[in-house]
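hi!! sorry for the late reply, been swamped w classes. u asked for the two structures so here they r. pasted raw, havent cleaned anything up. first the sequence of the first protein and right below it the tokens
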Amino acid sequence: MGNRPAAKRRVLLWLSVLCLALGVLLAWQAQAQKAPSESGVALAMTIDDAIGPAIDDYFQRGLEEAEAREAELVVVQLDTPGGLDASMRAMIRAMLGSPVPVALYVSPAGARAASAGTYLLYASHVAAMAPATHLGSATPVQLGGGGLPGLGEPDPEAEPPAQEAAPEDADDAAPEGGATADEAAAEPGDPAPAKRRGETAMERKVLEDAVAYIRSLAERHGRNADWAEQAVREAVNLTARDALERNVIEVVARDLDDLLAQLDGRSVVMDDGERVLATAGLTVERFDPDWRTKLLAVITNPNVAYFLMIIGFYGLIFELSNPGSLVPGTIGIISLLLALFAFQVLPVNYAGLALILVGLGLIVGEALMPSFGILGIGGIVAFVIGSVILMDADTLNISLPMIGGIALLAAGLMLWAMTRFIGLRRRPPRTGQEELVGSEARVLDDFTGQGHVRLMGERWRARSHVPLARGQSVRVTAVDGLTLEVEPLASTP
């Protein structure tokens, strides 16, 4: 027994040394990755999923990594079906303000840059595609695919706005330079484009905003703005060869080496002016998504996010319906915060911070109101997930060993508290009638059936199924009001 505290101290010491060694190893690896190469560097990234908060976080970290490594170029191999508008715009803002040129390369063969991917391609400093790829279908839609809640369809009997009404002589009324894409595509006798689409006022506002946005990106880099508008209004698509011929992209390349060879000497438009690329002989270094990005991508998957939102709402409803059950409330609040992060309602830093605060609150709640572990376990889960989300935030950069160490410390404290509570439950009672059961008493008079015993200095009425003699030791088996049920411990002296 005496060696147990020393053994515990040795275990804690070795755990501390292990955590310290892990932190030093991770720091050394990070420093080795950031060490600039003697030759020029092209940082290659891969986006092969829907655009969301996880991809946005990965992309912006890649731009920061390229700036830290003093890279000459960032090449993003893109294959996406689209994604969230908020994440796409955040990526575009980061790309336009990046001091390192960004080349978006739709590859490999069979890949696509649909919807949000088209906007990203137009915003990039260099737009490139591999053969057998395509882009387009950039019409904005609501998350569920329908209209906005609360906005009905336009009144079919209402007259269209004056600026959208089709005049009798459309050719004479058309301004010099041609009509818009919708007007050009309309057949004689068709209704006005807006009414033909059955758009609501909100949908028209979203559509016009998207058109202006992609046209501004096209004009910045001298690309085909008319086709960009057509991709938004009519969801048209282009193959790689057609995109090159129509000045939507600059390069069609077979692979990454072919792309770098074609980009050498090309002039691109940066935030501070034009720059000539020198890509000959660049060393390609990969910056692939890590485990954190993959985990966040799973959470931000639309199906998973929707499921988390449902679990969150029902968990809170069940907790409010049955106060004190704790399990649905704990699961509900964690799921709801993750769903809000996935739907980009909460930014990555606020979502992580909220989960950390919820986790700490649940751990404190476990200490103040024992719940057989559900609050503590839920608190640790929320704390770890929140820390992972917050790990690479710009203002709060938290290291992985510190997250693991604090989580292990919190789990150890919770385990110690639970073992203490279990030990207290196993201790014999110290007060009340329960304390009397199992106690030893002494018979005061010979009796059969009912008599008196002395217990803890007090005289008690006792009942026994066997004859008892004076001075005999008995054990209390039950308490019936003020009468003790006893049984003999030893034979009569």
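now the second protein. again sequence first, tokens right under
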Amino acid sequence: MLDVLRPGVLDGLTVCVVGDGAAERERAIALGARVVTIDGELADEDAVQLAIGALGHIDVLIVDAASAFAEAGGGMPGLRVSVDDAWNVVRAVATASWIGAEGEDPKNDGGKVIFVAPIDAAGEHASAVGAALENAARTLSVEWARFGIRVTAIRPREGSATDERAELVAFLASPAGDYFTGCSFYPGGAPPTT
């Protein structure tokens, strides 16, 4: 297990993990975060908003789109589920925790969204999921910069280890991650070439 971050670096933060994200959840807990999850049908926008509202303030949102892609069986259904569900949750958390009503000041100093994409070899359209999440991170980082919301994407390569990804997620959730937004990270290898 990688052990880069100091114990307690996530003390006082509430981290919401969507999807399996077991390694990311365990690492956040080990570093002192309060970890919450959202269960249920993420395609139902009203249900997602109610679930988010019941959790209270969220500092960091980790969206494990890789598990959603796999659970949907990959392909086009996996693409739709992982990207659509990610958007429903991100919008609900941003609205509930970080963005004030129209014309109001933001509710606080912002928050962080960390997308975790499937590896490209996870099946047909897996690389499209990664590209969509990378694009969302880039676009939302610009759109929501005024609210202090930082958005990043992790596009693991085939050689990346689970603990390596979990440590990168924890790093981005920590105060050191405050310096990154609109970025994509490629643990285990080089970025894809186009």
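hope this helps!! also noticed smth abt the second:
Strands lie at 14-18, 34-37, 60-64, 112-116, 150-154, 184-185.
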